[in-house]
Amino acid sequence: MGAFDGVHLGHQALIRQVLTIAERDHLTSGVVTFDPHPQLVLHPERPFRLITLEREKELLLHQMGIERVAVIPFTVSLSQMSAEEFLRTYLDEQLHIHTLVVGFDHHFGHDKGLDFADYQAIAQHYGIRCIRGEAYTLGDSTSQDPISSTAIRRWIDTGAVTEAERQLGHPYTILGKVKTGLQIGRKLGYPTANIEVPSPYKALPPAGVYMARTTIDPFGATQQRDIPSMLYIGTRPTLELAKEETMIEVFLMGGEEYHLYGQELQISLCDRLRQELHFESLDALRKQITRDEEAVRRYFQLSD
């Protein structure tokens, strides 16, 4: 139970514990999470970005093997509930929880002075078994600080997507639907898929070009997975029609003709190739994109 922003290595350790218990005791595995993120509700004046939006989080959890994701709408009134009231109202009466695995430093309820022993006693009163998860640290961490979503957001903000992946335990991803664009990429010889920016609260890395892998229809049965791709994030400064809004475009390099309009794509960033540049002409931009494609092909060891 928690926000699970990023579904990082610390979250995954807890989720594996849930999966083990569910399999052993013949239970349905599940995660209880909140939307909106508590920070967006309790501190709307503070700048805050999410590593994973709700649907992205749901996809990652299902890919790990979680069978049920229960999303509780987070409100100010919910934040003012006591731990006992929250556990009774949501975990017992609504969700009928059998076993609750609580993160090693997780707290819930307005009465912050409670510790795990208190949660265990309250849960036992309602017939819920309460188990404490273990803290997780990277094996090579000299400081042995727990993995945190806050630290991962900082890596994303600087474009260090490989470092973010090291702490996430999976690539940083963008999930979005393909929308109709201006067809500029097609005119340049690179038919890109324009992705709807999922939310103003999505944490995006700096503008530039990235190596990526794309999965088409990630929730569906006919998904095509891990297609080598070239991803652009930026404001198209070379075009006269450039706007300040951030654009996301991806060029799939699988060697097939893809029909993507309206499709949902999961784009997993592998590494950053270069920062965003301004070019004097579309021809100069085309030449740079060709060089970018060659670099991406070398990265993925693709033949021409």
From TrEMBL:
Q: In which pathway does it act?
A: Cofactor biosynthesis; FAD biosynthesis; FAD from FMN: step 1/1; Cofactor biosynthesis; FMN biosynthesis; FMN from riboflavin (ATP route): step 1/1
Q: Which residues form the Riboflavin kinase domain?
A: 167-301
A GO biological process held by the record: FAD biosynthetic process
Q: Which CDD domains match?
A: FAD_synthetase_N (cd02064)
EC top class named in words: transferase
Q: Which reactions are catalysed by this chain?
A: riboflavin + ATP = FMN + ADP + H(+); FMN + ATP + H(+) = FAD + diphosphate
Which molecular-function annotations from GO does this UniProt entry contain?
ATP binding; FMN adenylyltransferase activity; riboflavin kinase activity
Q: Which InterPro entries match?
A: FAD_synthase (IPR015864), Riboflavin_kinase (IPR023468), Riboflavin_kinase_bac (IPR002606), Riboflavin_kinase_bac/euk (IPR015865), Riboflavin_kinase_dom_sf (IPR023465), Rossmann-like_a/b/a_fold (IPR014729)
Q: Which family does it belong to?
A: Belongs to the ribF family.
Which NCBIfam families does this entry report, sorted A to Z? Answer: ribF
Protein name (database record):
Riboflavin biosynthesis protein
